[in-house]
UniProtKB/TrEMBL annotation:
The keyword NADP applies. This is NADP-dependent oxidoreductase. One of its GO terms (molecular function) is oxidoreductase activity. Pfam families: ADH_N, ADH_zinc_N. Residues 11-311 form the Enoyl reductase (ER) domain.
Length: 313
């Protein structure tokens, strides 16, 4: 029997239980994956706590969406995968598990150089960062301000924007500033005086802003620093974005992602896998947790533990 972390009611980490589940079978258009590592994302605990709305429970619900492992079964109509292939997938609910069936279009071949841990860290952070940068049309003549540059999404965005040739200024705690600098960003401390610090760093002004922090300070500073509201986007304050006149990509926004934005989120994965294989992208891994420690892992994510936390079944 396979095993998965599940819950049947909203609540704290204690609602998560480790259950035996029937071994998944690869249906038409699907593959099955033996999971070697799953990434912990803030949305996992936001959904569990009811911070982001979900439909009523109709049975046990899995958690986690991003993981890496190897193929154990190939369903009808699937080309390009063979049993044993190392892969990465994203957008598959129930990834905190030993085994899972996933639609083949969400699964990508994992180059030998990319470990399962690094592969599991890609999905949501890399997809979101890449889509946000494409949506804002970040180019070589941009000066981009990123709020929350030291987090998983932020680190991906710093690197992708720098690769596009943009100048990147990223807010961070002092403890995480060096990491932002290592990735090609110019770290600036968040907190009192943020607007002045950005102005003295970028005398010509910033031309685009991405908010991955969601604090009032990040929103207020963004509105003060850039008149062009179409070039300010948040991924956290979706419900309030219209009131501020800025763009939102998910994050509780009543406006769903467009088909193009969804396409970019998936396209990001092979793009970054190729960058990783070429040694041109870096992923910071954090603590690893056993499947039965999933609640502890989500608590650590909520408390802002550094690096991508992993569940290792
Ligand atoms: N809309 C979407 O589709 C989408 C997708 C992915 C993520 N998200 C959301 O985006 C946010 C970031 O996700 P993540 O995976 O990158 O999380 P993460 O890895 O936990 O990073 C959190 C970031 O927030 C920063 N931060 C913490 N307190 C702050 C403060 N007071 N002021 C400014 N920055 C502060 C952290 O900086 P330090 O560590 O340096 O303090 C860190 O850079 C989460 O809220 C997540 O739910 C939304």
């Amino acid at each position: 029997m396979a095993k998965a972390i599940q819950y049947t009611e909203l609540g704290g980490p204690e609602v998560l239980t480790l259950n035996e589940i029937p071994d998944p079978i690869a249906g038409p258009g699907q593959v099955t994956v033996r999971i070697e590592a799953a990434g912990v994302n803030p949305i996992d605990w936001k959904l569990r706590e009811g911070i982001r709305p979900t439909p009523p429970f109709t049975g046990p619900r899995g958690t986690g969406t991003d993981a890496a492992g190897h193929i154990t079964g190939v369903g009808e109509g699937v080309d390009g995968f063979r049993i044993g292939d190392p892969v990465v997938f994203t957008g598959a609910p129930g990834a905190y598990a030993t085994d899972i069936a996933v639609p083949a279009e969400k699964v990508f071949a994992r180059p030998a150089r990319v470990t399962a841990g690094v592969g599991a860290a890609l999905g949501i952070p890399v997809g979101t960062a890449y889509q946000a940068i494409r949506s804002l049309g970040i180019r070589g003549d941009d000066t981009l301000l990123i709020h929350g540059a030291s987090g998983s999404v932020g680190q991906a965005a710093v690197q992708l924007a720098a690769l596009a040739g943009a100048r990147v200024i990223g807010t961070t705690s002092d403890a995480r500033a060096e990491r932002v600098a290592d990735l090609g960003g110019e770290p600036i401390a968040y907190g009192d005086g943020l607007v002045d610090r950005v102005r003295s760093a970028a005398a010509g002004g910033v031309t685009a802003i991405l908010d991955f922090a969601g604090t009032d300070e990040a929103i207020d500073a963004s509105l003060e620093l850039l008149e062009d509201r179409d070039r300010i986007a948040t991924i956290v304050r979706g419900p309030d974005a219209a009131e501020f006149g800025i763009r939102a990509f998910g994050g509780g926004s009543p406006v769903p992602l467009t088909a193009q934005q969804e396409t970019w989120r998936l396209e990001a994965i092979p793009v970054v896998l190729a960058l990783l294989a070429a040694g041109r992208f870096s992923v910071e891994l954090g603590e690893r947790y056993a499947l039965e420690q999933a609640g502890e892992a989500q608590r650590a994510s909520r408390e802002g533990a550094p690096g991508k936390l992993l569940i290792v079944p």
